[in-house]
Design goal:
tt1808, chain A, six-stranded mixed sheet, 9 strands, globular
């Protein structure tokens, strides 16, 4: 798999039914190893081990109902009251992060109304803080540590 702009970690990769799978720390099971999943697992590791995010407050593939259609958020971080705090959207490393990607995650936010949005393709990471008063968002220079949220 590709090198990412994220810290390396000891991945658990196996072969199941002739296909590569990677262990998902959050779902606690092996999942298909796709380029997007490679980014997700590295990013989750980064958040937990370098930014202090509690894995118990994170969920992958969160189902939500958006205008009558079912959508899945790649990762959602919850606060200690179990309300959604952050949505994270992953793309494969070869996928450029465009306005369309931000439109996708902001559509999810119509339902969840979180404080932070992150988009990453493993190479480039963008984090913004929602400003509901002015109905906009502000890009942050870095992804905040959990205790700064």
């Amino acid at each position: 798999m590709l090198l990412l702009n994220l810290p390396k970690y000891e991945t658990k990769i196996a072969i199941r039914e002739g296909k590569k799978v990677i262990f998902d720390l959050i779902r606690r099971r092996y999942v298909a190893l796709t380029p997007e999943e490679w980014v997700r697992q590295h990013f989750i590791h980064f958040l937990i081990n370098h930014k202090g995010y509690p894995s118990a407050l994170m969920a992958n593939e969160v189902l939500l109902n958006l205008n009558g259609t079912k959508k899945r958020c790649d990762t959602v971080l919850y606060n200690r009251n179990l309300s959604a705090k952050m949505i994270i959207e992953y793309k494969a490393p070869h996928i450029e992060i465009t306005q369309a990607v931000f439109n996708q995650i902001t559509n999810y936010n119509f339902v969840l109304k979180v404080d932070y949005l992150i988009v990453s393709n493993g190479i480039n990471h963008y984090c913004c803080k929602m400003d509901y008063v002015n109905q906009t968002y502000v890009f942050l220079k870095d992804i905040p540590d959990y205790n700064q949220l």
